[in-house]
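Can anyone check this?
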Amino acid sequence: MSKPAFNTLDSIAVPLDRRNVDTDQIIPARFLRKSRSAGMADYLFHDLRSDPDGVKRSDFILNHERYQSAQILVARDNFGSGSSREAAVYALWDFGFRAVIAPSFGDIFFSNSLKNGLLPIVLDPESVEALLGLLLAQPGCRVKIDLASQSLTASAGFARRFEIDAFQKQLLLTGQDELG
């Protein structure tokens, strides 16, 4: 299966100021039976984005207009922990995210992300704190990711390098999967 190649990404970044975001928060279990072909964007962070009556919560960051076209999500440690539901990656992808930056990820989520073309970037906690601080201070701030050079930059001189497995990097750069 091929997917879009990932070379560079220049996008508004969403500061999701939360720790331990598990896959049930990313996509609640009751939506796992929905068809993948119909898309899963509406189910992303469903219970955080909406109240029990389905009304969008004005205080949840993804409901803010400025973040509707964001393709980069920045979160705190242990993002994607919990069960092994691949639908968590599908929901992020279908919403438009192409990269998630955090100090740590759930192992299975990390693997599922790479297999589906979503770039999980691990940065040290201090760098994530600095980036979150920048994004919270400058809502709508853009972040640029260059996969080939394994670097990311943002305004105010924020620049970091990140590590990625060479094989996974090549797969993302070419849009290939492991079988290809």
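Reply from J.R.: I decoded it. The radius of gyration is 15 Å.
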